[in-house]
C-alpha cells in the first residue's frame, strides 16, 4: 500500500513537471455552433440583451450580449447599423488558457465555450484576454460569468433566449461552417445577402478565430 | 520683434503653468463628478488620455489596485492552489492576483516593466459606439471595451517558431537549445525592448540568467494564435534582404511607445 502510494506520487510529480511550461492545445469540436447576426436589419431594440439578462439572472452591470451601435456620416449621407455580439465561442479561445482554476472549458460536442462560475476566483484574466469583451464581471459576487449559448436550451433541442427574443429575426444560431458558406437555412440572412466573418472595428479574427457570421452593412464591410 | 518673441514665450510658459495646475486640481476634484459626467470627461479621450498620469487615473480607479481575488471560488477551489497554463513558467511567483496587479505591482512587473495605465487604456466605454465613420485603420478603437487586443498581443502572442526556422514549437525545441534564447539571439537581434513601457536593461540582464524570461512574453503567456509583428529596427550586421515574413513591417516603434529624451534608463 505504502509502496503504491509512493509510486503514484512520483508519477504525479513527473506529470506535473511535464505539464509545466506547456502551452495549451485547443479542443477540436466535432461540430462548432455559432451565431449569425444581420447588422443591417437589426433595429437595436436590445430585446436579446434583456432576454439574456433575464435568463441568467444578471444584476446591473454584466451584459452577456452587447448590441453595439455604429452611427455616422454627414447629412444627407448618414448611416446606422448594429454589431451584436455575445460570446463568439472561438475555435481557439483566448480566455481559456488564462484561467488559473480551469473554470473555462470548451465542449467537444458542439464547441461551446463555457465558464463554470462556481470555480471562478475573480482574477478577471479572461475578461482582459477576450478580444470581443465576452466575459463579464459580476461585482456583486466577485466572479466572472459569460454566455454559454444557453447550453441547457441547446441540449433540450431549442435555441438560446436571445435568438428566441429577437423580434426582427436577425439573430440565429447554427453550425458555423454552414453559416459561413451560406448553407444554413435562416431568416437572419436574406436571399442575396453574403455572410462575412469580419466587420469594421471588430478585433482581428486571426487572434482567436471567433465562430460568428455577419451580414455586414455597406459601410461596415472590410475589403 | 524681440518683444513679440518674448511675449510668445511668456504665453507658452503661462499656459503650461495653468494646464499644470489644472491637472493637479483635477486629481483631487473628480469625486464631485457624477458617473455620466465622469464617463465623458476629456481625460478619457484622445488627446488628453495620452498625457494622463497614473495618479490621475487612480484618483478615481484606485480599486483596480486594491481589489483582491477571492480566497476561494464559490465551489471551494482555493486561489493559492490554482495555476493557469502560462503561470507554470518559473518567472511566475507569488499568490494569485488580478491582472491589473500583475501588470503594475506584481514582482515581475516591478522587475521588468514600466507600464502605465495609458500604455493599454486608450479610451473609455464609449468605444462600444465606434468612431465615425467606422475605420479599420483606426486601431485604437475596436468594438470591445477598454483595451485594443493588439496591445495585449505584444506580450501575449504566439511564439513564431516557423519564422525562426525551429523544428517545432519551443516547448519541444527548447532542450536542443539548452533553453537559452541568447544562443542565437545574441547575434540575431533587433533593437530590442527600447520602448517606454519596458525596462530594457533589466530584461537583458534577466534573459542572461533564464530563457524562460524571454519565452514568457514571446509565447509562454500566449493568449492569441498569432505572433505580434514587431517593428524591424535595423541592427548591426542585418542582411539587406528583407525576409518574406517581415515585408511591410515598420522599422520604428509606435510613436506612443518611443522613449522620449530624458526618459531613457528609467
UniProtKB/TrEMBL annotation, chain A:
Transmembrane segments: none annotated. PROSITE patterns: 4FE4S_FER_1, 4FE4S_FER_2. Residues 1-21 are annotated as: Disordered. The keyword Repeat applies. Gene3D superfamilies: 3.30.70.20. One of its GO terms (molecular function) is 4 iron, 4 sulfur cluster binding. Signal peptide: none annotated. Residues 33-63, 79-109, 111-140 form the 4Fe-4S ferredoxin-type domain. Keywords: 4Fe-4S, Electron transport, Iron, Iron-sulfur, Metal-binding, Repeat, Transport. CDD domains: DMSOR_beta_like. It holds the Pfam family Fer4_11. Residues 1-15 have a biased composition (Basic and acidic residues). PANTHER family: ANAEROBIC DIMETHYL SULFOXIDE REDUCTASE CHAIN B-RELATED, PROTEIN NRFC. This is 4Fe-4S dicluster domain-containing protein. It comes from Sedimenticola thiotaurini.
TrEMBL record, chain B:
InterPro entries: Multihaem_cyt_sf (IPR036280). It comes from the Bacteria. This is Doubled CXXCH motif domain-containing protein. It comes from Sedimenticola thiotaurini.
